[in-house]
Design brief:
The chain is α+β, with helices and mostly antiparallel strands and about 425 residues long. It is about 40% helix and about 30% strand. It contains 13 helices and 17 strands. A five-stranded antiparallel β-sheet has the order 4-3-7-6-5, with helices on both faces. Strands 9-8-12-11-10 form a five-stranded antiparallel β-sheet, sandwiched between helices. The chain starts with a strand and ends with a strand.
């Protein structure tokens, strides 16, 4: 205080600190406003006495309105929601109000221009010293871009899953550090395993294949982990619900920022039908080669014994059969006598001769049936086929299927050509 000569008192106070504080507060508020604008976010307070919202400028932008505009009451907020989301929003708001608990909700709104947007609303109550809830504080955020991205990811995932289902192909990923394996849904179906269970780790995963396939897979994975080179294999997998399946497996390395291999990823495709088609084509080519060779022999060879011997040889060498045998009907004894064979297993050939010479067992054989009916007789599972008398013996010698063709002269079956395949 300073006293002037005319008796007037003048007071002065240093308000520098207050001005600095006001300036910093204004700057802080401006930064918050800018941040909320950039984040497509608005804030509001709720007065429970008159049931009204006080809105920040950014709230209007979230609702496609001028700054500071927007729903002023709970009823207007519900009205702003998409019709399909209103019941859900009413329920969530009621639960928050009745229980005085925070609210977290996402719903759609329609802007004045007709475009659809997604918003995220979060709020809580301010409580007094006794913990009694009073005013409400909240934020509203435009999450349309996030939702579009999520929907896009879901659509891509759905399309990928559908593509994998159509192709009968699944994808997988292996964490090198933990041996943890991740499978796509379709891979569970390809492998014939329960999709509700976690996939086996890498150690158990290898056991899903036959021993030979398992060794090739282990070798390929080791090489990829060491060199980073990708691999492609055709692996055989036994399944209890069907015959063995064949899978095409491709894998590649995934490196981290330092270049270290941290994961392997790839695809597994069921190629059982393709392998079956390839085997069919191979068999047809073999049959064609055999028929072509036999036709040539018929023209060139005049001696019957040599013809039979060469036919059996061609069946084994050109046709790829495990064994071929020709038997001729002896009219005096009415038994089938083996007269030529190739690729023979001596024990198997001896067993076949003994069987055909047996008065009791010979009539039950496929050879006898082929002669009686003058028709081709086939067994694709010689170990379990009841029409195959020597099923166990065939299994021991590696024979898995066989066909018996009647040799017909002047409409009379004079013998058989039996072909045995592995």
């Amino acid at each position: 205080m300073v006293r002037a000569g005319d008796g007037i008192a003048v007071f002065a106070r240093d308000v520098t600190l207050r001005k600095e504080a006001e300036s910093k507060l204004k700057e802080s508020e401006e930064r918050l406003r800018l941040a909320m604008t950039v984040a497509h976010m608005g804030a509001w307070t709720f007065d429970p006495r008159n049931q009204t919202f006080s809105l920040s400028e950014g709230t209007g932008l979230v609702f496609g309105l001028p700054p500071g505009e927007g729903p002023r009451t709970p009823g207007e907020l519900i009205e702003a929601a998409h019709p399909a989301d209103r019941d859900m929003l009413v329920r969530v708001m009621a639960e928050s109000r009745e229980n005085a608990t925070p609210m977290r909700v996402e719903f759609r709104i329609t802007w004045p221009d007709g475009t659809l947007h997604w918003v995220n609303v979060q709020s809580d109550f301010i409580r007094d010293e006794q913990g009694v809830p009073g005013r409400g504080l909240g934020i509203v955020m435009d999450i349309t871009e996030r939702k579009i991205a999520e929907e896009s990811r879901l659509q891509i995932h759905a399309e990928l899953s559908e593509a994998q289902r159509i192709a009968h192909m699944g994808s997988w990923q292996l964490d090198v550090a933990t041996n943890h394996v991740t499978w796509s849904e379709e891979l569970y179906r390809v492998m014939g395993l329960n999709p509700t269970l976690p996939p086996p780790d890498y150690t158990e995963h290898a056991k899903l294949f036959t021993p030979e396939s398992r060794e090739r897979l282990a070798s390929a994975v080791s090489r990829t982990l060491e060199t980073g080179a990708p691999y492609e294999l055709e692996l055989e997998r036994p399944r209890a619900d069907r015959e063995h399946v064949w899978m095409l497996v491709r894998g590649e390395a995934v490196r981290d920022a330092s270049g270290a291999i941290v994961k392997l990823r790839g695809i597994s495709m069921d190629i059982t039908e393709r392998k079956a088609a390839q085997r069919t084509i191979t068999r047809l080519n073999r049959v064609y080669a055999v028929l072509s060779g036999i036709n040539t022999l018929i023209v060139r060879v005049r001696d019957r014994d040599e013809l039979f011997s060469q036919v059996c040889r061609i069946a084994v060498e050109a046709g790829g059969f495990r064994m071929a045998l020709i038997g001729i009907v002896d009219r005096s004894s009415m038994k089938i006598i083996p007269v030529a064979s190739a690729g023979k297993d001596e024990k198997l050939l001896s067993a076949i001769k003994g069987l055909l010479s047996s008065s009791e067992s010979a009539p039950k054989t496929m050879s006898a049936r082929a002669i009686r009916e003058k028709k081709v007789v086939i067994s694709n599972h010689s170990q379990s086929d009841p029409q195959v008398v020597l099923g166990q013996k065939y299994d021991e010698t590696g024979v898995r299927s066989m066909v018996v063709l009647p040799l017909i002269v002047s409409d009379e079956a004079v013998g058989v050509l039996a072909l045995y395949a592995s």
